[in-house]
Amino acid sequence: MKIVVGITGASGSIYALRFIAAAKADGHEVHAVVTDSGWDVLEYECGVSREKFSVKVDKLYDNDNVGAAIASGSFRTDAMVILPCSMKTAGSIAHGISDNLLTRAADVMLKEGRKLVIVPRETPMHAIHLENLLKLAQVGARIVPACPGFYHRPQTLDDIVDMMVGKICDQLGIEHNLFKRWQG
């Protein structure tokens, strides 16, 4: 599978790093685009620079390059995951505003009927946030809020992150052993 990963400036970049690792481990091709504030958060929260990040993906695009391959429906991709997804980005996509490569790539996923998974990392949310997420769900996006469960009895922060990333992988059919599934 060819997956586009979008990273915005919302807190939670660790989810993106772990998702990329899981997708690559399962043999998938990962293309990525990161907003300016996404770079700031990656550096602040995870200590990951552009140089360190670029070796983790198959192709890294400049968010200002709206002519890049992922901006076109003729470039075959299977899915896009935006994680973490800021409310600014969710609002732009919900209203068809494709003013950068990340939002254009998401718009392409919707118009082509491809999988788009949005992982908002915001709390609390007000009515506008919820309306934008509802609008995205109504046009086919999967909304997977970054709120992990605890039935797998996490012992570390990694266990909590892995639970959330596993739920995202499940949306795309990516095989993983990131958490113990509920057996009843």
Automatic annotation (TrEMBL):
InterPro entries per the UniProt record, alphabetical: Flavin_trans-like, Flavoprotein, UbiX-like
Residues reported to bind dimethylallyl phosphate: 151, 167
Gene Ontology MF: a single term: carboxy-lyase activity
Domain of life of the organism encoding this protein: Bacteria
Signal peptide (UniProt feature, chain positions): none
Catalysed reactions, as listed in the record: dimethylallyl phosphate + FMNH2 = prenylated FMNH2 + phosphate
Any Pfam family matching the protein: Flavoprotein
Keyword vocabulary terms for this entry: Flavoprotein, FMN, Prenyltransferase, Transferase
Coiled-coil regions listed in the entry: none
Positions annotated to bind FMN: 9-11, 35, 86-89, 121
Residue ranges of domain Flavoprotein in the record: 1-172
EC code(s) of this entry: 2.5.1.129
Record family assignment: Belongs to the UbiX/PAD1 family.
HAMAP family: ubiX_pad
Function of the molecule: Flavin prenyltransferase that catalyzes the synthesis of the prenylated FMN cofactor (prenyl-FMN) for 4-hydroxy-3-polyprenylbenzoic acid decarboxylase UbiD. The prenyltransferase is metal-independent and links a dimethylallyl moiety from dimethylallyl monophosphate (DMAP) to the flavin N5 and C6 atoms of FMN.
PANTHER family cross-referenced by the UniProt entry: FLAVIN PRENYLTRANSFERASE, FLAVIN PRENYLTRANSFERASE PAD1, MITOCHONDRIAL
Full protein name: Flavin prenyltransferase UbiX
Protein species of origin: Selenomonas ruminis
